[in-house]
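Consider this today:
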Amino acid sequence: MDGTDPRRAVEAVWRIESARLIAGLARRVGDLGLAEELAQDALVAALETWPRTGVPERPGAWLMTTAGRRAIDRFRREERFRAKCAELAREFESGLRGDDGTAAFARAEERADGADPYQDDLLRLIFVSCHPVLPRAGRVALTLRLLGGLSTAEIARAFLVPEATVAQRIVRAKRTLARRGVPFAVPREEGELRERLGSVLEVVYLVFNEGYAATAGDDWVRPALCEDAVRLGRVLAGLLPAEGEVLGLLALMELQAARVPARVAASGVAVRLDIQDRSLWDPLLLRRGLEGVERAVAAGGGPGAALGAYTLQAAIAACHVSGETDWDAVAGLYARLAAVAPSPVVELNRAVAVGRSRGAAEGLELVEKLVAGGELEEYHLLWSVRGDLRQRLGLPAADDFSRALTLATNEAERRLLAGRLHAARTHRPPP
């Protein structure tokens, strides 16, 4: 890394290596909170040292070795010295001959090469940070902190909450894991593994969705959050390459991320999918996403198999980016999704697809059932979809768009809805 600015290099290395560093330390010391402290100590040491000495050839190895030395010093100062020091010394001291610790790091890498993926430190860290004993907000904050390498301030800015709130969520999450005695391990039982993997995928997709369609604030999209989620998805896919739902989630995020550049107009107004400038879509992400859908479907047993929810959503996203949208296929996929993961939101999306494939009247019939059910009464998209379908049928729609505007909390989306409300009131074509 000759010629690289040391401080910027530290930031870049931390974003890339922090998850692996914390994961490796957590396995060795058996304490997630302590592992993060040691990793932070190593980061501080790098900030102090690299501007003077330059960035080492293997910065990740330098951080691991430095954190290892701090761990040994810490246990030597504590009463647990005899119980822990011998174990840690075998892990770290044997390779501390070189100045940058590359020998120790290389040996650790050799042990990992060819190992069962369930033994991978990163995989353990993912399953711990997304453990179901934690509340959803705690899982998201801890995952972005430990696996995304984001600072507390960055997480707070991304989710538009006070920094103190994020800090409290992270502290509480780590305390809960320690109090509940959650092991730093991947569950072995099939049932628990499936449950925990579902929690992991949920967290990653929550992060992505907040970047793809922010719930509040001025910006409708936050590309950095989408990028973090896709990066986490790729880590998961590398660790669990045979899991169809992992591949499905990654493909889904890549296909949606490809459309991010076209989702907001220069004026700041949200742009609907059907009128987006497709030349702005990212061709590399599109290609990767479409190839990922094929792999996910194959891993799930093939097109006619009972595919998982993320794989079905990825297949739906593929329909939207493959030339003219095949609305019959989309409606059929939403019917399959409703059978696998039933929810009012899925039914609303199915109504949109039915309205496009079989006519606005059939779509509106499905929406009216949701209105009568009352579960989505405070969901702005219910009223936006209802207004769109009524408008296409020549029925009054202003009240629906007005209600959607009242419930929406994102300013870019509110501007879109305000335009649609104005068009409905003046009987003009929708924008």
Remarks:
- The chain has a mean pLDDT of 85.
- Residues 241-322 form one domain.
- DSSP finds 20 helices and no strands in the chain.
- The radius of gyration is 25 Å.
